[in-house]
Design goal:
19 strands, 16 helices, eight-stranded parallel beta sheet, alpha/beta, about 500 residues
Length: about 500
């Protein structure tokens, strides 16, 4: 991602000709003063809901724009114009339509929204309980008994609060790996939770409590498609989230069902002691290993397995915090890079870990580089340069996720014509000052507290560090009530043992 200066190129790129001439803007600032007469923006600006009302164009002025677009690269002192749901233009000194709301960024970092390709949002109420757990302890508790205590309203509460958390941290798209859809009521409630928050979500339809994959083609998924997803052109869209472990012939009708309905499929796989190359072999031998498949974790595959994934264009979703702490296998970014496997990043579950992509990027980079140094030291050598660069990890957190969801033409980069999913980070905080390396800052310096403004589908959902048009208090009440119910069902003794083990 190079710095794109004006030389030899137009200073703007537009999706179509702009309306009007000079800007007619409402002065809005991020982290600085500035609407005329020395008054500060905080003193004169309207409430965010009014300034950013639906249909009103928005222009971000004077930003450091990390576009993730191969042609545009990183732009300094640049503008991004949003009209309707899409990015209209990217460049310097952009003309804007009458009535445009201007956000004076003061050099803030503007990036595409982050895309998380694997998070179990339904578990949000149990945040932090499993911080000391291994994978075996998680499986025993969550799928041995605790998951069965979830009522439909508990799934709704977890999904709702999980989406609130994601938006607050600049994660504009989440694949909700929802594998506790035991009844139609649970499934509807989970969708309701996603729809209650104005974020973009891929609803991963799953049921880890079923004895087989038969539930997929017995009518429930079709009911959901017809009743909850009449259009794929909406913020929440469906796919299948079900483990192809162990692979058996009964999975073939379910895989055909998904393919016939244009549904992508995600499965946990490549996990030490649980699922290795047999999943890849099964998919490949039956003609289902393709770009529509995302395998989560993937640290236990052989060289042949990674090679097959690469050849088929399938994806890995790497959740490095999870893999390093729970024991699924070492985060495989080094192996995936070696064989050319396409990657995205994910957070897994807040039962253990973080809910933001800054943590995911750092964990991935740390694991990959740390292993490279360790192996060099074991050979009696010292590395002279790091093979994995921060720009690659940032791409996995944005465009990598967009590609895995089949949405690379719509999200993942700041490109004219794409849907406007944007994140503006402040650069006037102690951790972000001075700004000398925008990409490096995003990966190693930034955190969720630096997320000033978030836009999803052209709608401002966070500004000046506060969520806009989101009932945060209601989401908290619902998830706290859910936790109270779950703790009562689990019992004090088991809860105390599990939360301290």
């Amino acid at each position: 991602m190079r710095d794109q200066r004006d030389g030899g190129r137009s200073n703007q790129l537009s999706r179509r000709s702009l309306l009007g001439g000079a800007a007619a803007v409402a002065g809005v600032v991020t982290g600085a003063s500035v609407v005329g007469g020395g008054a500060t923006a905080r003193a004169v600006e309207q409430p965010a809901a009014e300034r950013f009302r639906p249909g009103r164009p928005i222009v971000f002025r004077g930003a450091t724009v990390v576009t993730l677009d191969d042609e545009l690269g990183v732009l300094t002192d640049a503008d991004v114009l949003v009209v309707g749901t899409r990015i209209e233009a990217v460049g310097r000194d952009l003309p804007t339509p009458p009535g445009t709301t201007a956000v004076e960024t003061g050099g803030g970092l503007l990036t595409p929204g982050f895309v998380d390709t694997h998070r179990h949002l339904w578990q949000t109420a149990l945040r932090g309980v499993g911080v000391e757990w291994t994978l075996a302890e998680y499986m025993e508790r969550m799928f041995g008994r605790w998951g069965l205590a979830y009522r439909p309203e508990d799934l709704a509460a977890g999904n709702r609060m999980g989406m609130v958390e994601a938006l607050d941290a600049g994660v504009t798209t989440v694949l909700d790996w929802s594998h506790n859809l035991r009844t139609p009521e649970h499934a509807d409630a989970a969708v309701d939770g996603l729809l209650a928050v104005p974020g973009r979500a891929r609803f991963g339809i799953g049921n880890a409590f079923a004895d087989s994959a038969g539930w997929i083609h017995r009518g429930e998924v079709d009911r959901l498609l017809d009743s909850r997803f009449p259009s794929r052109d909406q913020l929440v869209t469906p796919q299948i989230a079900y483990d192809i472990v162990p692979p058996d012939e009964e999975l073939l009708p379910a895989l055909r069902f998904a393919r016939d309905r244009g549904l992508q499929w995600t499965s946990h796989g490549g996990i030490v002691g649980y699922a290795a190359d047999e999943t890849i072999t099964f998919l490949a031998d039956n003609g289902f290993l393709s770009p529509d498949i995302t395998l989560v974790h993937g640290g236990a595959y052989s060289e042949d397995g990674y090679r097959r994934l690469a050849d088929a264009g399938a994806f890995l979703s790497i959740a490095a915090e999870s893999e390093l702490n729970a024991g699924q296998g070492y985060p495989p970014s080094h192996r995936a890079r070696e064989f050319g496997v396409r990657m995205s990043l994910s957070m897994d579950t807040v039962v253990w870990w973080s809910g933001d992509m800054f943590s995911a990027m750092r964990a991935t980079l740390n694991a990959d580089r740390g292993l490279a140094h360790l192996r060099a030291h074991e050979r009696g050598e010292v590395l002279q340069s790091n093979a994995l660069r921060s720009a690659e990890v940032l791409e996995w957190a944005t465009m990598g996720g967009a590609r895995a969801l089949g949405m690379e033409a719509e999200i993942g980069s700041i490109t004219p014509g794409k849907l406007a999913d944007l994140v503006l980070l402040r650069t006037d905080t102690t951790a972000m000052t001075p700004l000398s390396n925008p990409v490096g800052h995003l990966v190693f310096q930034a955190g969720r507290a630096d997320v000033d403004t978030v836009v999803v589908n052209g709608r401002v959902v966070k500004h000046r560090g506060e969520l806009v048009g989101v009932d945060v208090a209601g989401a908290r009440r619902a998830v706290e009530a859910s936790l109270e119910h779950l703790r009562a069902e689990i019992g004090d003794q088991e809860w105390a043992a599990a939360s301290s083990s």
